[in-house]
Specification:
The chain is an alpha/beta fold. It folds into two domains: 5-219, 2-enoyl-CoA Hydratase, Chain A, domain 1, CATH 3.90.226.10; 223-270, Lyase 2-enoyl-coa Hydratase, Chain  A, domain 2. Helix content is 46%, strand content 16%. It is built from twelve helices and eleven strands. The chain has helices spanning 5-8, 37-50, 88-106, 108-111, 127-133, 161-168, 172-181, 187-193, 204-219, 223-238, 241-255, 259-270, and strands spanning 13-19, 22-27, 34-35, 58-63, 68-70, 72-73, 116-120, 123-125, 137-141, 145-147, 198-200. A six-stranded mixed sheet has the order 1-2-4-7-9-11, sandwiched between helices. It has a three-stranded parallel sheet with strand order 5-8-10. Strands 3-6 form a two-stranded parallel ribbon. The radius of gyration is 20 Å and the shape is globular. Keywords: Fatty acid metabolism, Isomerase, Lipid metabolism. It comes from Steccherinum ochraceum. GO terms for molecular function: delta(3,5)-delta(2,4)-dienoyl-CoA isomerase activity.
Amino acid sequence: MAATIQELSGEFIKVSSPAEHILLVELNRGPVNAFTVPFWREFGEVFDRISVLPDVRAIVLASALKKGFSAGLDFSGLDDMATYDQDVGRKALQTRSILKAFQRAIGAPERCLCPVIAAVHGITLGLSIDIISACDVRYAASDSVFSIKEVDVGLAADIGTLARLPKLAGNQSLVHELAYTSRNFGVAEAEKMGLLSRVIEGSREEVVKAALETAKLIATKSPIAVLGTKSVLQHARDHTVQDNLDYVANWNGVMLQSTDLTSAFSAAVQRKKATFPPLWKPASKL
């Protein structure tokens, strides 16, 4: 059975529905949203549970805290590695297992069926870049400060930044520079690189408002069309043009039979607002 909105919120993440078909997912671990193991596990679980809700059409991911989006990883959690088996091979397997689980949790926005809009402000460091790189759309308040922080703590970013960011950004030289140096950068460089689609003047309130307005616009569209568009865009990122043309031909061979197509066309002709049913029969109503 699908979870209700109230059941989605947890110890570190707050979920609300500020408008019909829209969810606002807020990181809420004071003072700076530093991620522990329970925090990132909850993050992945929340998004995976949202994906089975039939009438959610767009999500805004933000921070509930004034200081910023997230300071990244809480490194006190790395003390757990001291309990791993000391044999090199076995320790490597244990480390790999936790890294794979971590990658899957932070990648949850990418596999979520509906679009996820990241709305960041203030400090947006380290793991923050892994998280927003897995989102579909990225807005930042003008006070945002970013850093690909991992080399400063002796490791290569391994949760998604180095896998996704080079495919998002148009300026590969800048991606390399920022990843090698770990220096802070602001919204101007983030936009120049291609990480952001919009910079919003202000801080948390302003960027969340702007992201919710875009989410509301997405929610007026056919959920079948939006789901298909997200799937085809992700496929295009990782495949050749011809592979993607074949993929979308197969996809639309089925999805063009949806009633959403006729509903959208009829509404356009009559200059009326189209209405669309949930993706499947809901177990609970938002």
